[in-house]
Design brief:
By secondary structure, the chain is mainly alpha-helical. The chain is built from 8 helices and no strands. It starts with a helix and ends with a helix. The protein is globular.
Length: 195
């Protein structure tokens, strides 16, 4: 492996395993308005990695998946958010979020090829957990809508970052690094599971 590639791989590992707040949903802090909703997915490694992984996997799958998988995630996440607001229980929300990080990383690392509808169902299932976690912290006041729009926009941008990572690796080093990124995300999922 070239020294430049080793350095890039090491940097990815450091980023994905850095000791930032592991969980974005602590049940504490401000939950009012667009800015707080926008910042919520950015506040935890679990959400960041899962959202980026959806974008990377969509890019890796190619074709219609580049837009369909992120769109499915965002749409179902909004539905999960409504479940959270309405007080509808979703069992194992935290575990589902951690499993999403782990499994999405594995799917990227081993370059899983499935029909698009199956891929969309997988990201949709995980989106329920992520959306529910956001929704239970969303205020039930007028500002709650702005908060919801904020976390939807932030999530979509993280998906775009994942797609951008795929494009960057394809154009600069190798698609093999997309797989390495998936392995790094899966490793971070194991860390989150054990933390």
């Amino acid at each position: 492996m070239k020294p430049k590639n080793k350095l890039l791989l090491a940097l990815l590992g450091i980023i994905f395993l850095s000791p930032v707040s592991a969980y974005a949903h602590t049940g504490m802090g401000h939950t009012v308005g667009f800015a707080n909703g926008f910042g919520h997915p950015l506040g935890g490694l679990d959400h960041i990695l899962a959202m980026i992984a959806v974008g990377i996997w969509a890019f890796q799958t190619g074709g219609k998946a580049v837009w369909a998988m992120p769109a499915a995630f965002v749409g179902v996440m909004a539905l999960g958010g409504f479940f959270g607001i309405a007080g509808v229980g979703v069992p194992f929300t935290e575990e589902g979020i951690i499993i999403s990080v782990l499994l999405l990383g594995v799917l990227i690392a081993v370059v899983v090829r499935m029909p698009l509808v199956i891929n969309m169902a997988i990201v949709g299932l995980f989106a329920v957990f992520h959306g529910h976690a956001h929704g239970i912290e969303m205020p039930v006041v007028a500002f709650g809508l702005a908060y919801g729009v904020g976390f939807v926009v932030s999530t979509a941008l993280l998906h775009l970052c994942g797609i951008g990572i795929g494009v960057l690796f394809q154009k600069t080093v190798s698609m093999r690094f997309v797989r390495y990124t998936g392995a790094s995300i899966a490793t971070a999922g194991v860390y989150l599971f054990l933390a």
